[in-house]
Amino acid sequence: MTDATAPTPRKNGRWIAILVVVVVLVAGAAVAAEFIARSVVSNTVRSLVVEKIGLPDDQDVDVQLGGVVLPQLLAGRLDDVTITSDDVTLGPITGDVRAEMTGVPVSGGGAADGGTASIRIDEQQLRTLLAQIPDFPSGTVAMAAPDLTFTNELSVFGVGIPVGMSVTPGASNGDLTLTPTGFQLGGNSIDADTLRAQFGGVADVVLRSQSLCFADRLPAALTLTSATVQGQNLVASFDIDGGVLNDPA
Q1: What count of other Cβ atoms lies within 10 Å of the Cβ of residue 95?
Q2: How far from 104 is each of 76, 130, 223, 241, CA to CA, in Å?
Q3: What pLDDT digit, counting tens, does each position of 71-93 carry?
């Protein structure tokens, strides 16, 4: 005798099929919602960057959002926002920019946790930047990782004597620094003591470190932390204060 109340295999199969369809639809809706949210947030961030920095409307700005966006929107903060763009001018610096911010508030009313940025400067852009140092021979600057090289000049009894120089870039109190590390005189490598012994106080012009102040020409939220030569570029790195999003200062 058979049990009339037992579900037939056909009915079981029908319910399983319906369940699979429902799961697929829900998953598809979630994927679509995530895609839309990611697109809207990315476009909003891009528009804000273009507006606040004063970039051309057609500037190519790429925005990447870390993790799944929907839960972050519900929590009110974006975990990680990375922004990249080429040929951006910030104060006296022009180069390819990469910035990363963490804990970015969705409403825009609070501060972010903070962030970092780097600007990659090619040789010509670097020469333009260093031309802002008075009497600096920026036109002769070349990359020679980990240093920069250029030709300076000592004036002895009105006669100019070329001195080849190597300097290591760095950062101090938010300023770009250039610290001498080596010298070439008449095709020979010499050290600072030998140069001073030959030219006395006249050599001070090439022995001292040079610096370029950024603090008064960059947004207050940016602080230069390092500058290194990487290949054929100078890479300047900055800390970003999270208050950049909500503090007018």
Answers
A1: 21
A2: 8, 34, 19, 12
A3: 888 888 899 999 999 998 887 88
What sign does the CA torsion over 89, 151, 198, 145 have?
positive
Looking at the DSSP assignment, which residues form a beta bridge with residue 163?
Answer: 152
Q: Over the stretch 183-209, which tens digit does the pLDDT of each residue have?
A: 999 889 999 999 999 888 888 888 999
Find residue 179's DSSP bridge partners.
168
The reported pTM is 0.80
Residue pair 183/192 in contact by the 8 Å Cβ criterion: yes
CA distance 239 to 13: 60
Q: Give the pairing type, strands 233-240 and 210-212.
A: unpaired
Q: Which two tokens stand for residue 23?
A: 């799961």
pLDDT at res. 131: 93
Q: In 3-state terms, the chain is what percent helix, strand and coil (to 5)?
A: 35, 40, 25
DSSP annotation of 5 reads: T
- The CA R_g of the chain, rounded to the nearest whole Å, is 29
Q: What is the largest CA-CA distance in the chain?
A: 124
Q: Are 112 and 225 in contact (CB under 8 A)?
A: no
